[in-house]
Fold this sequence. Notes:
By secondary structure, the chain is of the alpha+beta class. 40% of the residues lie in helices and 23% in strands. It has 8 helices and 11 strands. Strands 1-8-3-6 form a 4-stranded antiparallel sheet. A hairpin with a 5-residue loop joins strand 4 and strand 5. Helix 5 (124-151) runs antiparallel to helix 6. The termini are far apart.
Amino acid sequence: MQEYFEKLRQCMLFEGVADNNLQAMLRCLGARVQHCKKGEIIMAEGEKATHIGVLLSGSVQLVRMDYYGNRSIVANIRPPQLFGESFVCAEVQAMPVSTIATEDCTILQIEGRRVLSPCCNVCDFHNRTVFNLMKIVATKNLLYHQKIEVTSKRTTREKLMTYLLLQEKEHGSSSFTIPFDRQELADFLEVERSGLSTEIGKLKKEGIIACERSRFRLLTEKYS
């Protein structure tokens, strides 16, 4: 487990926890390491939410499928981010999304009940962990509100530009790389890929954006 300590120190869940307490903390939380292959379902839609995942390497996506088989990407997770924490805190009996490995990945799985229940050992760091978890859940809620802000727009063009403007703000630069390929971006925006490609082509022709694969650059302040 110690080989992952450097990555765990970067995780918000363990913020404020001294290095000499980290090993004991992981035992207290019932932590175990899981290795997953690309395409593997880590947590399936409909399952009870029992574990919190800390991504140590690779990438995963939270994906929702509708009645007609259309895929919507809810979130893209990168190390050392968490996933599943909101469902665990809400004690969800059937998760509304699946968590899928988009690359070979390594995950630290933590038993949710051990995080939320009082510790029998009265560990000094347990309260700190709960406090950190609440901050993470609150931050994720803000991000999900951003997703709603994007997908609530009426047209594909408006959804795309809203997303790109948010990415520009997040990166602090008009040039940035997004974590999606074209199909994934369409699934995240909840639009058809063909329509998305058409709008990207129009925006490039109008001199509003430049892009190559997942790399985008906003060229003008007149985005409408």
